[in-house]
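Appendix C: a fully annotated inverse folding record. The material below is reproduced so that readers can follow the format used throughout the book. The structure is listed first as tokens, followed by the designed sequence.
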């Protein structure tokens, strides 16, 4: 069934100092699932925000069914039949499924009672939306009591309640288990079969063949092209995403030792990862490459004792044990910079000074007492060492840029004098200059004999920074490669399903 047709012609978006979209022309037909991919910074989010009416283009044209349109606000986008389901869900946990589907649009009763909400009307309309999607949910259940997969369905139902001709799904499977993902794919294909144009944004390249009809690739603000899914081999997709990327050179003086500092043996956590084996050498920067959902973050969390392991062991200083708690692993010389630095790595309301000291209070305090003077004596040298730009260390850490916040997380853990640091997506959401500072920190740690494990979705970063890279797929280590003997494109292919 053919539906509406969404196009752009030479779409451009400029921000001070950067061009986010550089004359992008794309074409999304109704009745098909169109995957939109590209590495971070490629322009995907900007394009989605323009379609959603929340960002205005600098130039170019948007057409629906061949007619130019202006989307000056989200309400304009809804009026033109464009709905968006963002990665960060916008549901109210304390409200029911039906209430969330029509959030902000609850119908009123007629006649003398028109000031009252028509609860029966909400329920009937919500049930009609779910019936149209061929899914079943308890309309009276509070959304906060539902699993992530069911909450994702409620988000899609909310979008479908506008009867859209175009629906954009931003990383919809990022928090879903595999069987939940398969159910979502069935729902997406049903929407396309009704003539809806589905724009599917994902980093999980292994999903493309399961759900998409076409693949459109953005790179550095440009549209590289669109291909049918039958032509979207791992090699082709990798070349479209990374073709022409210059291979950076790691400093020549970075030499990892030969003796293992830490060994991981048969580590497993049901449903997350299994039978993970590797060793980390003294002063080594060891990368772990894999697509989203491969188990990389879960593995780091388990090594640091955040989540429990059911099988396997870790060997440190010749002693084998199963990871215990973060406090226990810190005492053994491990440190962990988490993926979500704002919520899990820092206390946003506290000062930069207090955050830098959080993990090392036992080292800084005297007889259990702490003073701001003692903290400053510890904080100022390490802030200078890491080139953290902050007007005043007494200001809340929330006032810092993403890159400087990431450096504060690293500073917090360096104060514990670790022998191993686990970096989970340390460059996410920071600018190019800040990324280079983070890389320099890792290299300086390597020169001091401190070992690092580096997880990144940006595979070119691993090729630039690491001594050695492990490949992780479906929750286990499937091989290792060396940056000097593999290209970014080949690494992407190794990480994808054949």
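Designed amino acids, in order:
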């Amino acid at each position: 069934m053919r539906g509406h047709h969404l196009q752009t012609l030479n779409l451009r978006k400029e921000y001070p100092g950067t061009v986010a979209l550089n004359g992008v022309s794309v074409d999304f037909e109704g009745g098909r699932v169109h995957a939109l991919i590209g590495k971070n910074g490629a322009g995907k989010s900007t394009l989605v925000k323009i379609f959603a009416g929340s960002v205005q283009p600098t130039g170019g044209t948007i057409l629906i069914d061949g007619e130019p349109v202006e989307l000056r606000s989200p309400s304009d986008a809804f009026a033109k039949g464009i709905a968006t389901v963002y990665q960060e869900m916008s549901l109210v946990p304390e409200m029911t499924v039906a209430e969330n589907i029509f959030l902000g649009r609850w119908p009123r009763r007629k006649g003398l009672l028109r000031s009252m909400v028509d609860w029966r009307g909400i329920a009937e309309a919500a049930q009609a939306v779910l019936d149209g999607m061929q899914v079943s949910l308890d309309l009276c259940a509070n959304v906060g009591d539902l699993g992530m997969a069911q909450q994702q369905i409620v988000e899609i139902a909310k979008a479908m309640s506008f009867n859209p001709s175009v629906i954009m799904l931003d990383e919809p499977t990022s928090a879903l288990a595999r069987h939940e993902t398969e159910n979502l794919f069935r729902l997406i294909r049903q929407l396309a079969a009704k003539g809806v144009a589905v724009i599917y944004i994902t980093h999980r390249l292994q999903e493309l063949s399961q759900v998409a009809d076409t693949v459109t690739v953005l790179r550095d603000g440009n549209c590289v092209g669109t291909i049918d899914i039958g032509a979207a081999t791992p090699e082709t997709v990798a070349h479209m995403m990374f073709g022409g990327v210059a291979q950076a050179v790691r400093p020549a003086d970075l030499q990892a030792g030969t003796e293992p500092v830490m060994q991981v043996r048969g580590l497993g956590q049901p449903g997350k990862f299994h039978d993970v084996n590797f060793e980390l050498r003294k002063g080594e920067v060891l990368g772990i490459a894999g697509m989203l959902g491969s188990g990389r973050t879960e593995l780091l969390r388990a090594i640091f004792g955040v989540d429990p392991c059911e099988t396997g062991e870790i060997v440190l200083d010749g002693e084998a044990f199963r990871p215990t708690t973060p406090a226990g692993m810190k005492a053994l010389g491990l440190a962990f910079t988490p993926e979500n630095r704002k919520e899990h790595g820092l206390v946003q309301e506290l000062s930069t000074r207090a955050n830098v000291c959080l993990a090392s209070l036992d080292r800084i305090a005297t007889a259990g007492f702490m003073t701001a003077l003692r903290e400053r004596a510890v904080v100022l040298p390490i802030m200078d060492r890491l080139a953290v730009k902050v007007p005043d260390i007494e200001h809340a850490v929330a006032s810092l840029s993403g890159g400087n916040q990431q450096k504060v997380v690293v500073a917090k853990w360096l104060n514990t004098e670790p022998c191993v640091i686990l970096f989970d997506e340390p460059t996410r959401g920071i600018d190019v200059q800040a990324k280079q500072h983070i890389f320099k920190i890792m290299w300086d740690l390597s020169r001091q004999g401190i070992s690092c494990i580096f997880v990144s979705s940006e595979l070119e970063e691993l090729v630039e920074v690491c001594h050695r890279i492990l490949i992780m797929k479906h929750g286990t280590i499937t091989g290792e490669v060396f940056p000097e003997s593999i290209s970014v494109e080949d690494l992407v292919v190794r990480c994808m399903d054949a």
